[in-house]
Design brief:
Layout (H helix, E strand, L loop, with lengths): L7 H11 L6 H29 L6 H13 L2 H13 L8 E5 L5 E6 L9 H5 L16 H53 L10 E3 L6 E6 L2 H7 L6 E4 L5 E6 L5 H16 L8 E5 L4 E5 L11 H15 L5 E5 L7 H17 L3 E5 L3 H10 L4 E8 L5 E7 L8 H14 L1
Parallel strand pairs: 3-7, 6-10, 6-11, 8-9, 9-10
Antiparallel strand pairs: 1-2, 4-5, 4-7, 11-12
Helix pairs in contact: 1-2, 2-3, 2-4, 2-6, 10-11
């Protein structure tokens, strides 16, 4: 398969970063300086963006970020950085000092700042100081060259480590900035996908976790919209001052899809995103948990009901007041009477702990118990069914019914087969 070519900037960073992992201080220093030069260019571009667009941002986070960039990355900072990076190139050679140790071995290698050149060119040509002793190495003297390079590395060691740490620090800053901005880029990409289909989005109105607010219009499952690549049916509901929402109604009527839209909207709101709805307002929650029915698994060591109760036990260990739990056809692996009793006891225990519950169920006895005894604090939604058996995928307020209209599916499937 052909591969996408890497950008020139990616290769540039790779080449400049490679020297940091070398063995010799001179190589480490050179690679670090190369990388810092590239990042100084990027910091300059970031400063230009801050100067141009900072006033257009209202969020506290971006305002603080741009303010930091403008204050710390001023012209004086860039001039100082360029001066230091130029000096670290050591175009005029390396000046260092050392002492003689035991056995005349060199010790105490210290890198020195180069002397400022005298202003007059004649003084540099005709020095008037004491004698200066020099030596030179033949171009073909490999051993001498390696010895001299070793002396140079000893003097550069501390500087190379310091510059490498600085380069790593700046690189970490850009990596973190890229991670943070990836979230916003993802939000923009999602919006660009939804806009052509006319799928609405809105900024939600979040409220404190202790309140009981949950009202929306046109709420839809964003995952379903992405899969179908078209506008999907949205729902309206007003669950303010309600701890419990029970969803019943016709099979294949959109109940599970609605429950998924509730969970996704809550997550998107708490992430600071827009939500897939025309309007949306809800209280924050101290954790979002889901308990969905699962398909049969031949590897299970116990029954399906035991598996459901085991998962519920694990969820209960992490629950706190003001959390939210989404149930989808839970505890239906046994008969209706037993399943309704289990669901009722668990739901009542959660409500006592001030936990918001959304429950999709076909268990009429369970839903009817709360309709009779907890009606004031419960919103009952029912999947809409037309008189001819058609599904609109709309959920309307309505008390639970004893039937989920399973025969509609039977007629649709087997009547269709007969016609073929």
């Amino acid at each position: 398969m052909p591969t996408r070519p890497r950008s020139s900037r990616t290769w540039k960073k790779h080449d400049r970063w490679l020297g940091i992992f070398g063995r010799h201080p001179s190589g480490i220093l050179s690679g670090s300086v190369n990388l810092l030069e590239m990042y100084v260019e990027l910091l300059g571009r970031l400063k230009q963006i801050a100067d141009e667009y900072a006033g257009q941002f209202q969020s506290e986070g971006f305002s603080r970020f741009f303010s930091m960039i403008q204050q710390e990355l001023d012209d004086e900072y860039f001039a100082s950085i360029q001066t230091h990076l130029k000096a670290l190139r050591f175009r005029s050679g390396v000046l260092m000092s050392a002492r003689l140790g035991q056995g005349n071995e060199g010790t105490g290698y210290v890198l020195r700042k180069p002397n400022d050149p005298d202003g007059h060119w004649l003084k540099r040509i005709l020095p008037t100081g004491g004698p200066v002793y020099t030596f030179s190495i033949h171009p073909r003297d490999e051993h001498g060259g390696r010895a001299l390079a070793d002396l140079k590395d000893r003097g550069l060691n501390l500087v190379a480590n310091a510059v490498a740490q600085s380069a790593d620090h700046v690189d970490s800053f850009f990596k973190m900035l890229r991670i943070e901005l990836a979230f916003y880029v993802g939000c923009l990409n999602l919006h660009e996908q939804l806009a052509p289909w006319g799928s609405p989005t809105c900024f939600p109105v979040p409220l404190t976790a202790q309140e009981r607010r949950h009202t929306f219009t046109g709420l839809y499952d964003v995952c379903l919209a992405l899969v179908k690549q078209e506008k999907v049916v949205g729902n309206d509901a007003d669950a303010d001052r309600r701890n419990l929402v029970i969803i019943t109604g016709a099979n294949q009527g959109g109940k599970s899809t609605f429950l998924r839209s509730i969970g996704l909207a809550q997550l998107m709101m708490e992430c600071g995103m827009y939500v897939p709805a025309e309007s949306f307002s809800a209280n924050l929650c101290q954790g979002l948990f889901t308990h969905y029915k699962r398909q049969e698994d031949a590897t299970m060591e116990s029954g399906k009901l035991d598996e459901e109760l085991s998962r519920m036990s694990a969820i209960a260990d992490g629950l706190r007041p003001d959390a939210m739990v989404l149930f989808n056809e839970s505890f239906a692996a046994t008969n209706e009477r037993e399943g309704s009793e289990i669901a009722s006891q668990i739901t009542r225990a959660l409500l006592k702990r001030h936990i918001k519950v959304f429950f999709v169920t076909h268990q009429y006895e369970f839903a009817h118990r709360f309709h009779d005894g907890y009606r004031e604090r419960t919103l009952f939604l029912r999947a809409e069914r037309q008189t001819d058996g058609g599904r609109t995928f709309k959920l309307r307020p309505g008390e639970p019914l004893q039937t989920s209209y399973g025969p509609d599916l039977y007629q649709t499937i087997f009547k269709g087969n007969d016609e073929e």
